[in-house]
Amino acid sequence: MIFDVMTLFPEMIESYCSFSIMKRASEAGVIKVNTINPRDFTLDKHKKVDDTPYGGGAGMVLMAQPYVDAYESIERSENSITVMLSPQGEPLNDNLVNELAGYEQIILMCGHYEGFDERIRDIIKPKEISIGDFVLTGGELPALCLIDAVSRKIEGTLGKIESADEDSFSNGLLEYPHYTKPREYRGLKVPEVLLNGNHKEIAEFRLQQSIERTKKKRPDLYAKYL
Ligand code: 4G3
Description:
34% of the residues lie in helices and 17% in strands. The protein has helices at residues 10-16, 20-27, 64-72, 94-100, 118-124, 140-151, 199-217, 219-225; strands at residues 2-6, 32-36, 50-51, 61-62, 80-91, 105-109, 127-130, 184-185, 188-189. The longest helix has 19 residues, at 199-217.
């Protein structure tokens, strides 16, 4: 899986991707994260990437030319999709993450300030995706959320220990509670059933805990599960 990230701040992307599981997946060749900086495609000596909005108003708007030229410089594989991270996008969820994991290449467009000149959308026609109903100063964190979520669905990124088909949402339920050593902490004991080695009983206990939690914490998900 190749992620080509268009951003004015490539270090934000590179930094996150150089730790923990993202780093391991890159080193294993399971994912490749590239950055493309529209500032490198400006034509003026001040390397200007944004300007004031026509019609007035607060803030700055990303100019079309550096962004579109940067986009057109990216080598496209056969099975690729272009995604713009924006609060106006389709909400990201586990289903969409699975769908995205089926591509060979994902081109991600990060915006800043008040957003993109509309002609960037008109020309590139990206799929717009949002990570939730709130506004951030830039699209880099949403892009990283997407990269992380998609990467962990790809064979070879997670070990069997961290396996993705056992977590929340793969079965439409929240995760069951987890415990590790010691058996007792501040008077709180690990449920006895987890210590008895009866795998069928353990699986039943965990499923029942998952159902109870989902009902209590996320009645909306529970309604879909029923
Ligand atoms: C485009 C995405 C980009 C238009 C981006 C703001 C939140 C999300 C930006 C715009 C973002 C999200 C950059 N903030 N909810 N900020 O996924 O108005």
